[in-house]
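Tutorial, part two.
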Amino acid sequence: MKITDIECHILVAPGLRDDATSSSQDNIVVLVHTDSGITGIGETDVGPWIAKAVIESPSSHTMALGIKDLLIGQDPFDTTALWEKIYVSTCMSTRRGAGICAIGAIDMALWDIKGKALGLPCYKLLGGAHADHIVPYASLQPDGETVEKYQASLIDWLLLAKTHGFVAAKLECTLGGPYRHQGLDGTDEQMTEIITACRQAVGRDFTLMVDVQYLWRDAKSALRTISHWADLDLFFLETPLRTDNLNGYATLVREAPMRIAAGEWLTTRFEFAELLDVGQIDVAQPDIGRVGGLTEAIRVCHMAEDRGRLIVPHCWNSGIGIAASAHLAAAIPHCPFIEYLPAELTDSLLRVELADDGLEMKNGELALSNKPGLGVELNRDALEKYRTQPLVL
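Running the prediction step on this input gives:
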């Protein structure tokens, strides 16, 4: 089998707002075609125009070759060899950041091809399932132009998630910092009130996590607030500090009353090595598309397992990435939850319409899919409906 072509489709939902903090407004879907008629599907959560440019850029010299040029004619089964080939041959321009995200979308599609060709789900190719189900958590991003409306929206989403059958949810409670929603300007005390109200709304038998989205600049500022959250019984606190504040993360791991989670933006196992060994985080959160695909994500998972840490994958795109997260989670023993966004709990048209993730939740659990590859059904009508025209520079 040989790779014959790579297509990059940029999708944009109507009414995209560049002042919103949700990357589900746009997407890049990568289709890898083969001479056998099998097509693999992948995506990555990064600026889609950037990823498309990285993939389709022509070769420049031996350390800045074109990714598409490198892959045409190659065997898609050679996932690890192709990952290393692309990484080395494009290293001057794609060693980190958007370049690795672009590789991640392609790698995801290559694993999809392998599974489809063999008639096996990807988790079988990654080593087999450690359990017969996966536990999802509902990832809740509320709306509201005031703190009061924001709290009401978050509680409404939380109760809807519980009614839908979820046994766990993550509260995106961000009243300040770079991710604050719609310019909200709230205090740390108000954030504590919101999280306390959410805990009271669902009771103690429901797992809660909190994402404050890089709110604080230093560990001392974070500890002044989160030291009062011990009685809220939070499973983890996600991204309390900026990504590169590794010493600050280590301080929080030692002193915070809950697990500390991070890693959604990281690319490659090399960055995760720093986060695990210097930052000492309790929960690593590789995003499969961003970290470099399933090939690199499974390496990160093994690193975390060796250090006694948990894996909870990040995913904020469509059903394509959700399916990839489910396959990764099934194939490792230390992943208690995955981030899950069913159509009933999202207002993103791309998430609702683009792809069926092939997963079904019952009693708060996702049964493993036996569909080959990622098990994703791509909605071609949605692909055409939301596809943008190429930029003219």
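The domain at 125-378 is CATH 3.20.20.120 (TIM Barrel). In part three we will examine how such features are distributed along the chain.
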